[in-house]
Amino acid sequence: MQTKIIQGHELTEAQIDFMNNQRLTEYGENTKDFKKNERESVFFFLVEADSTKAFGLLKPVGITYADKSYRVLGIANIIAVEKGKGYGKVLMQVIKNYLTSQNMSGIGFCDATVCEFYAKCGYQIIDGLSTRFQYIHGQREKLDAERGVIYFDGGDALISKLLENDDLISTDVPLW
């Protein structure tokens, strides 16, 4: 098994088409524009015998909390093409290793039904944190529904800062 780490601006049309099709299969729709909006993201592909088994990305995200700006890598679009074979877990380990090598935290939002999977992969689950995020686009818009928040501390200790109180967290990217 091999991992390919590719910058968003280096994705091929075939890779973009594959991810678009997988999102349609997984979610019934594709709301991502990998070609336009993910050029600065880092993509991870788990490949075996020229077949992609799982993929996901880390997206650079700016957040503001307590009047200070931080950079974080948003964990997003984690999809195991073949379920129940451990490919998703291997992919999440690769992503943890990358976060550690970059000394950055990774934060992602997910449906509550998959939080347990991420916990088994060594990620922290933080209840209630999602409702504190607000997306800034013209005017402030607070997220209206609670989602699972997964987190991995890559060495910058950002999450401990975010948990110091219940202040809102502003982000420049909506639910990456």
Compact description:
The protein is of the alpha+beta class and 176 residues long.
Could you walk me through the main structural features you see in this protein, from its secondary elements to its overall organization?
The protein is of the alpha+beta class and 176 residues long. The chain has one domain: Aminopeptidase (3-Layer(aba) Sandwich), CATH 3.40.630.30. 26% of the residues lie in helices and 37% in strands. The protein has five helices and ten strands. Strands 1, 2, 3, 4, 5, 6, 7, 8, 9 and 10 form a ten-stranded mixed β-sheet that branches. Strand 2 and strand 3 form a beta hairpin. The longest helix is centred in the middle third of the chain and has 16 residues, at 87-102.
